[in-house]
Design goal:
The structure is a single chain. Strands 2, 4, 5, 6, 9, 10 and 11 form a seven-stranded mixed beta sheet that branches. Strands 1-3-8-7 form a four-stranded antiparallel beta sheet, with no helix packed on it. 0% of the residues lie in helices and 49% in strands. The protein is globular, with a radius of gyration of 13 Å. The N and C termini lie far apart (40 Å). The mean pLDDT is 93. The protein is mainly β and 123 residues long. A hairpin with a 4-residue loop joins β7 and β8. The protein is built from no helices and eleven strands.
Length: 123
């Protein structure tokens, strides 16, 4: 079965940067969207960013627009989330996910999830 493996989380100070990686155990599916979600303790999982693998169209939640960038590396079969100007409120477990839809934003539109990687931003 295909799995998604995230890495790159860690502890940073406010204003710092991290780059998360997500690598499927099988080649990335043509026509699918790859997305990032996050979930803080006691809070609902929320959409962060997504990339359409074919068109390279990207879109973001309002809370990260201008600070985060989602991108892909075809050679490495990897999707990235570059996170700059991090804020304490960005602290969460970040999940990589895959969807068969063109531009999904809701959790239920994604069917495959990674295990998550912890991002902690200190004030």
């Amino acid at each position: 079965q295909v799995q998604l493996v995230e890495s790159g989380g860690g502890l940073v100070q406010a204003g710092g940067s991290l780059r998360l990686s997500c690598t499927p155990s099988a080649p990335t599916f043509s026509g699918y969207t790859m997305g990032w979600f996050r979930q803080a303790p006691g809070k609902e999982r929320e959409f962060v960013a997504a990339l359409n693998w074919i068109t390279e169209t990207t879109y973001y939640s309002d809370s990260v627009e201008g600070r985060f960038t989602i991108s892909r590396d075809d050679a490495k079969n990897t999707i990235y989330l570059q996170m700059n100007s991090l804020k304490p409120e960005d602290t969460a477990v970040y999940l990589c996910a895959a969807s068969p839809l063109r531009a999904p934003r809701m959790q239920h539109e994604y069917y495959l999830w990674g295990q998550g990687t912890q991002v902690t931003v200190s004030s």
